Amino acid sequence: MSNQKVPASRANGRPLTCQRRRYREARFWAKVSIAGDPAACWPYRGNKWDSGHGVYGAGKQHFGTRSAHRIAFMLANGLLAGELLVRHLCGNPLCCNPGHLALGTQLENMHDRFVRHGDKPGPHPVLDLAPEPLGGWRIVTGDLAELDRAAQEAEFWQNVERNPDEFACWPWVGDGRHDFGYGACYWEGRHTSAHRVAFVLHHGLTLQELGDEVVRHLCPNGSNPACCNPTHLMRGSQLENMQDRAREGKYTRGEAHFATKLSDADLVKMREDYWLTEHNKKPTLEQLATRYGLTDWRHIHRLVHGDLRADAGGPLNDPNPDPQHRTQHARGERHPLVRHPDALIKALREEYWSTPSRLRPSTIALAEKYSTDSKTVWNWLHGKSRKAAGGPICT
Question: Taking the model in full, what pTM does it have?
Answer without folding.
Answer: 0.63
